[in-house]
Design a protein that fits this description.
This protein is mainly alpha-helical. Helix content is 67%, strand content 2%. The protein is built from 31 helices and 4 strands. It has a two-stranded antiparallel sheet. Strands 3-4 form a two-stranded antiparallel ribbon. Helix 10 packs antiparallel against helix 15 and helix 19 packs antiparallel against helix 20. The longest helix is centred in the middle third of the chain and has 28 residues. It is globular, with a radius of gyration of 29 Å.
């Protein structure tokens, strides 16, 4: 290993941990010194890139939350509402939407503690994190190659590429920028470990491990870091000895543990379901090849960007013959890189960096209902941008015409500006649910997902307004859009569930039941079926108690860790007089979702009815901590105060309930407290 020493870079001097015998490939020609020269270049260059990135992307600060995971991750995620020691324990022990990423959830919880559900802070933090990742990308490439031009071009493309906007302008894309921050920090730290001699190097090694774990806690896809570290070893010219491989054993062991947890979580959530369609081995190769080719061409020409890319349909039980061209394209590209680029270490490194970091995301094993996702390109594209940056910086090598270098650099900057304008527009597409899915149906008019989400958005607006004219307009639009979704895919279950809710709000119970059961006949995921049974159970409560009990128990049978179902089953047992079973179910719901409001209130009410006010008061106090704006809670608690002879506090709670709009106060009880 080498000691630290000072060496020349593209512009001026900087102190970097380097090998004692740097090759010509790593040295920087004097002809480039006029491009980014100056004593403070390594501060000014990333600062300018950060500023440009901010100016193009700050439009996303106006964005709202969308219905694309933002509801589950943020708006309805009870985990982010509790930063107590107990709350932190739940954050670090609970998967959300089939993903274990507690650091990402923790970032939401910190924002919630300041602004609750105001979107601006969530988007501001995502943008600032993206700028920080872009800055780390500059430093990683600079440390790796010692070429400022290469680092600047790479970072600029990384910061402004439209394919990255899903990770920036979408609140639920947060996990990408958080994991990338620790991921690139780990890569930089590893370079210091490799290039440092003496006992101090092992401090760098330990820091790499710590950063790796943090990256995994932000998004499990970071499991590929050990492979990236091996690629860095290759670029650094380290000999592949047993010792080199042995030092990666802890990294691979950690990656395997997190990988097993991730697969288990995805399977339990039903994310590995592909709408009941099965694919053979050859078809999976086609999907992976199609995805790879798509990521490659969109890296160069980011056109027709969408938030959802469905699998190709299997007409007549098989894929269209034209789709089998994609494995041939991939094989041809691999051959071209091997034939013409294998002697260029940077081209090999960049290609393998891209391939290694995208490989697990290519749907060779289909997961979910999307074959491509723009957010998956976030870290992998760094390898492709490095190749571009390296080629531009190569134009400044000794013996090359400097004018060629300036021309290439100018073209790169112009291309980056075009990317910036495209990203500016893409950020606005993510402005809200309506703009997002309107863009989707415009680009994919025969795909049902966009119509379903627009229909659901209209349904939410329908139930959220009291204006008769608006309600009718939203109802009719929702009905039309949801039926259009089922027209394009008869077996698409979710629109039927929303149609069921739409019918239920109109009191059309027969059509509501038909819609629910039709959707359930198509849905194969236990998690989704459980949700449908819960909706049916809630619908039956109050008029068909036998069916309500059956549906709620079925929901729990399909999904035992379903706090909402346990809470409603507790309510079912409450109104059917089975008080012990009711208290048990409320207790299970609270154990599974300690930050959930309803089971505390309902259990408190039942305990108060059973004259167990001491226990009830504990539940009411916990409920107040979770949601202090619920009138029913204060009204229920007033009876405990009244039973204990504390009329002033009981009266105060009743008046608090009235002030919060609770309109079911017993007037005789209220007047009795006042007198």
């Amino acid at each position: 290993m080498a000691n630290k020493k000072t060496r020349n870079t593209e512009a001026g001097k900087t102190t970097l941990p380097v090998k004692p015998h740097a090759t010509e490939q790593h040295s920087i020609p004097k002809s480039a010194s006029g491009v980014f020269s100056g004593k403070y270049s390594n501060v000014l260059i990333p600062a300018v890139i950060a500023l440009v990135t901010w100016l193009f992307l700050k439009v996303c600060l106006n964005n709202e939350f969308t219905d694309w995971d933002d509801t589950a991750y943020i708006k309805d995620n009870l985990l982010i509402r509790d930063l107590s020691p107990e709350g932190l324990k739940h954050i670090f022990s609970t998967s959300v939407q089939g993903n274990y990423h507690p650091l990402t959830i923790l970032s939401y919880a910190m924002e919630y503690s300041y602004v609750q559900l105001q979107p601006w802070l969530y988007h501001l933090d995502s943008l600032l994190l993206h700028i920080a990742v872009t800055t780390l990308a500059y430093w990683f490439i600079l440390l790796l190659t010692s070429r400022r031009v290469a680092a600047a071009v790479t970072a600029l493309l990384f910061g402004l590429h439209p394919m990255h906007m899903e990770s920036v302008a979408w609140a639920s894309g947060r996990k990408d920028v958080v994991y990338a921050l620790f991921y690139l920090a780990a890569c930089i730290t590893y370079l210091y470990y490799v290039r440092t001699a003496g006992a101090g190097k092992w401090r760098w090694y330990g820091l790499v491990i710590a950063l790796f774990v943090c990256s995994l806690l932000a998004k499990p896809v970071a499991v590929v870091l050990p492979v990236t570290l091996l690629l860095i070893d290759y670029f650094e010219g380290r000999k592949w000895t047993f010792a080199l491989l042995a030092e990666k054993i802890p990294h691979f062991a950690i990656a395997i543990c997190f990988g097993i947890r991730s697969v288990s979580d995805q399977h339990a959530y039903g994310a590995m379901d592909t709408q009941g369609v099965t694919y053979n081995f050859l078809e999976r190769i086609v999907f992976g090849s199609y995805a790879l080719v798509t990521y490659l061409w969109k890296a160069i020409i980011p056109a027709d960007l969408c938030c959802f890319y469905p699998y190709p349909e299997k007409a007549g039980g098989s894929l269209p013959a034209a789709d089998f061209i994609y494995p041939v394209i991939v094989a041809s590209l691999v051959f071209l890189v091997w034939r013409f680029g294998r002697r260029n270490k940077t081209v090999v490194f960049g290609s393998l960096f891209f391939l290694a970091n995208i490989a697990l995301l290519l749907q060779f094993i289909p997961v979910g209902i999307a074959v491509v996702a723009e957010r998956y390109s976030y870290i992998p594209y760094l390898g492709l941008f490095l190749i571009a940056g390296w080629l531009v910086s190569g134009c400044f090598q000794p013996g090359r015409n400097a004018n060629t270098g300036y021309l290439a650099l100018g073209a790169s900057l112009a291309y980056a500006l075009v990317l910036g304008f495209l990203s500016y527009e893409r950020c606005q597409v993510w402005q809200d649910t309506t703009s997002l899915w309107t863009d989707e149906v415009q680009k994919q008019p025969d795909i049902p997902v966009g119509y379903m989400h627009l229909g659901a958005d209209c349904y939410n607006k329908y139930i959220g307004t009291t204006n008769p004219n608006e309600r009718k307009a939203y109802y009719d639009t929702a009905f039309s859009l949801l039926n259009k979704a089922t027209y394009y895919q008869v077996s698409y279950a979710t629109p039927y569930f929303i149609l069921g809710e739409l019918y239920r709000t109109k009191g059309d119970i027969d059509n509501a039941k038909r819609s629910f059961y039709k959707g359930m006949s198509y849905k194969k995921s236990d998690a989704d079926l459980a949700g449908a049974y819960l909706a049916l159970g809630i619908m039956y409560l109050g008029h068909d108690m036998d069916s309500a009990g059956y549906c709620l128990r079925s929901a729990i049978r399909l999904r035992p860790e379903f706090a909402m179902a346990h809470s409603h089953l507790g309510f079912y047992y409450d109104i059917t007089g089975k008080h012990d079973s009711s208290l048990t179910q409320y207790g299970i719901a609270i154990a599974q979702a300690p930050a959930m409001f309803e089971p505390y209130v309902n259990r408190g009410i039942e305990l108060q009815h059973l004259h167990r006010c001491g226990e009830a008061m504990k539940d009411f106090e916990k409920a107040v901590q979770i949601n202090s704006g619920n009138g029913q809670l204060y009204y229920a608690r007033s009876f405990c105060y009244a039973e204990n002879g504390n009329k002033p506090l009981a009266l105060k709670d009743v008046e608090k309930a009235i002030s919060l709009g609770y309109n079911q106060v017993d007037n005789n009880y209220y007047q009795g407290l006042k007198h």
